[in-house]
Design a protein that fits this description.
Length: 95
């Protein structure tokens, strides 16, 4: 069974300063193929969530059903949404 893909998208910003890594609202990252482009602090926070979701676990979602986490830098505080993308074989398409 293939693991689902994980996409991280910046959906909000609550800190007074810009991201030191240059990320902005709307930026999106495939955790497997673009992890090296993601700010190391945000990647460090994302990893436990990604690991839980990849292996069938669940996380609490907000009122809209979104899974969110924030950048750990209090001056930046960007909010990331986690999207789990099922492998093609789980969508009923032939592999």
């Amino acid at each position: 069974m293939k693991k689902p893909a994980i996409r991280l998208t910046i959906v909000d910003k609550r800190g007074p300063k810009g991201c030191h890594h240059g990320h902005r609202i709307g930026d999106s990252f495939d955790f497997d193929t673009q992890r090296g482009q993601l700010c190391p602090m945000a990647c460090h926070v994302a990893f436990p969530y990604v690991d839980i979701l990849r292996y069938g676990g669940t996380l609490p979602a907000n009122d809209k059903g979104e899974l969110l986490f924030s950048c750990p830098d209090a001056d930046v505080l960007q909010i990331f949404r986690i999207d789990v993308i099922a492998p093609e074989e789980e969508k009923g398409e032939p592999s």
